[in-house]
Amino acid sequence: MSIDQIKTEILRIVRDVLKQELDYETSHTIIFVNRELNSFTFLQFLVAVEDAFDIEFPEDLLSVGRFQSLDDLVDYIQAQAVGARQA
Q1: Burial track 44-64 (b if 16+ CB lie within 10 A, e otherwise)
Q2: What is the mean pLDDT of each run of 10 residues along the chain (87 residues)?
Q3: Which CATH number fits domain 3-86: 1.10.1200.10, 3.40.50.150, 1.10.10.10, 3.30.70.2190?
Q4: Are the C-beta atoms of residues 27 and 3 closer than 8 Å to each other?
């Protein structure tokens, strides 16, 4: 999956789960600050990402501060995909 496809899917999840609109240009900005995000909503978001990309987040990454931007999340998803191909 390309970076553009990953970002497009993440933006869809943000829109569907977080009920927020982000445009493609916000990929370098913090996505979870000032968005009235609670721990339940954040976990819903991560579950949706796990389902969409067939990955699993370890417990130590279940923190709002861990993925501050779309690029952080894209990097993690890409690393998981590379790791899965090598396994």
Answers
A1: ebbebbeeebebebeeeeeeb
A2: 88 84 63 65 89 92 78 89 62
A3: 1.10.1200.10
A4: no
